């Protein structure tokens, strides 16, 4: 079984040395960059399955790295490493297109769990998408369709009014769960466990940020309403007309 390539961007050399050994034992190959610019260059040259990126770094900080990646339409999943207790960093990272975050200092086992959860959402390899795509670049036939929004799980493709939407793996996961349960409220706890692969903590705002991003990308429906509704104190609901979901 081949090892999964990961790019680790962090200026803490002691930490990166430890993580290279630990992640290597867990079945990952790790390339390391010690500043943001070097990491951005390596992200283009080695095509990692996932990027672990610190926020505070010399030359180019983690936010600028993430912003540059997404501006280049690079959809590689990114796990941000943030300062413990700094909610602003976490929210900014998610708004810029990070898939998840982990606060320093962290347990290495928790890092591995987050990495594996993200890779599961992303399909782990591009072969999943390639195997399910029809000839000529068309998406696979399995779909969930509600009004003008089409979601294709095999190729991780979402279209609105025939146009592809650029979603992170986390955003795709949340949308898939909500569309599969359209018209029904899905609790925040269930969303966190199904999509992020962890239990919801009391002060975790990541779901709220992901939902905000999804609303912006999906836009309003034909009647000018939000497609994703917030049910206060409970969770979220994907609104649907009487026709319901098809697939």
Could you characterize what this model shows?
With 247 residues, the protein is α/β, with parallel strands linked by helices. The protein has two domains: 4-121, 3-Layer(aba) Sandwich (Rossmann fold), CATH 3.40.50.2300; 139-238, Arc Repressor Mutant, subunit A (Orthogonal Bundle). The protein has nine helices and twelve strands. It has a five-stranded parallel beta sheet, with helices on both faces. Strand 8 (157-160) and strand 9 (163-164) form a beta hairpin. Helix 7 crosses helix 8 (188-196). Mean pLDDT is 86; it is low at 124-140 and 242-247.
Describe what is shown at a glance.
The chain is an alpha/beta fold.
Give me some keywords for this one.
9 helices, alpha/beta, 5-stranded parallel β-sheet, disordered C terminus, single chain, Arc Repressor Mutant, subunit A, Rossmann fold, 4-stranded antiparallel β-sheet, 247 residues
């Amino acid at each position: 079984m081949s090892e999964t390539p990961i790019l680790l961007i962090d200026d803490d050399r002691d930490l990166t040395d430890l993580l290279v050994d630990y992640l290597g034992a867990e079945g990952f190959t790790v390339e390391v960059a010690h500043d943001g610019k070097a990491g951005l260059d390596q992200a283009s040259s080695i095509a990692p399955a996932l990027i672990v990126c610190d926020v505070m770094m010399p030359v180019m900080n983690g936010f600028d790295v993430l912003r540059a990646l997404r501006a280049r339409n690079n959809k590689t999943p990114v796990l941000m490493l943030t300062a413990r207790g700094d909610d602003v960093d976490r929210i900014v990272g998610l708004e810029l297109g990070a898939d998840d975050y982990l606060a320093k200092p962290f347990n290495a086992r928790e890092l591995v769990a987050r990495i594996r959860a993200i890779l599961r959402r992303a399909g782990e390899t591009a072969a999943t998408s390639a195997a399910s795509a029809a000839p000529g670049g068309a998406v696979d036939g399995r779909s969930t369709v509600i009004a003008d929004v089409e979601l294709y799980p095999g190729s991780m493709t979402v279209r609105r009014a025939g146009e592809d939407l650029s979603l992170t793996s986390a955003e795709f996961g949340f949308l898939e769960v909500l569309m599969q349960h359209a018209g029904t409220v899905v609790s925040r706890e269930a969303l966190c466990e199904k999509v992020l692969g962890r239990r919801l903590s009391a002060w975790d705002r990541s779901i709220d940020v992901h939902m905000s991003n999804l609303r912006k990308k999906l836009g309003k429906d034909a009647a000018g309403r939000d497609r994703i509704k917030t049910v206060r104190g409970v969770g979220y609901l994907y609104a649907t007309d009487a026709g319901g979901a098809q697939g």
